[in-house]
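Thread: zinc ion complex, take 2
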Amino acid sequence: MIKRNGILLIFLVFFLISCQGKGNKPAQDTSQRSEIIQPQKWWENLPRPIYSSLERIKVSQEWYLVYQLTDDTFAIYEPYQFEEAISYLLLGKETAILVDTGTGIGNLSKLVAELTTLPVSVVNTHTHWDHIGANHQFDTIACFDHPECIDKLLNGVDNARLHPSITGDSIWKPLPEELDPSSWEIPSVKPTELLEDGELIDLGGGRKLEVIYTPGHSPGSICLLDQKNRLLFTGDTFFPGPLYAYPEDVDIDLYRASIDRLNGRIEEYDYLCSGHNDPWVKSEVISRVSDAFDAIMAGKGDFKQDGNLRRYYFEGFDILIRTDMIKD
Ligand SMILES: [Zn+2]
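Output below.
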């Protein structure tokens, strides 16, 4: 009896140790994202200070917060999902341009119809999921003329890829009722227009957007320069947060060259309207991003490391980069 109890005890101890081991593993795939990319309870730092100085516009869906930046420019912010995606509605005289479409979690075409009666065309700064989510709700869709952009739009994004981003700690407010996280996908769309570097998109009434090709964050990334309003729509090439310079589709040399290109034209814009976090950032920060990359490559700068990933800290932005990308 004693011997049997001893064996049972040993078995129990092993069982408890193995349970504890499992308890330390991520409970779900959302938490597999490194803490240096997605800190726990990231939403506790919201709202970001800039929003108290912007004029908020009432809209019918709780998922979106809309801010008026100029008479004819709206920022459409999604603060309840980790990416904090921002899309922009730009009104001209004859047509409106929607710069990116966010996560697609809400009904963006319904929202846009509350803000303008003009015909609306989508222009994608690039084709990562959190920018193309609601493309399928619109008829006219443009992206840069690059095979990567076109393929990403045609492929859509499946539920396996999206599920971690709409469950667990990636979300801190309820999703719209009609969205089922277990089956939600971003549908395939076909671009109706392909953009070239230097092309001018005419909205009428003297408002034009210049396409500036800025590859690096992704192969087909562009920025859009609103010459009249002196605004630069940067997508993910710059935003006040951790710049994603680590994923597989990043080309670090192209990224740095693109930042230099934007810096070379800094006299032409006063504010950056970026794809995440803050929609209204003074342009001077761009001049410091080149220096930041230079510092990293020279082995300088404060960082935290997790595996081969480093997060470097600078004033007004951070840079997430892989150790194998750091070279002189
Ligand atoms: Zn991106």
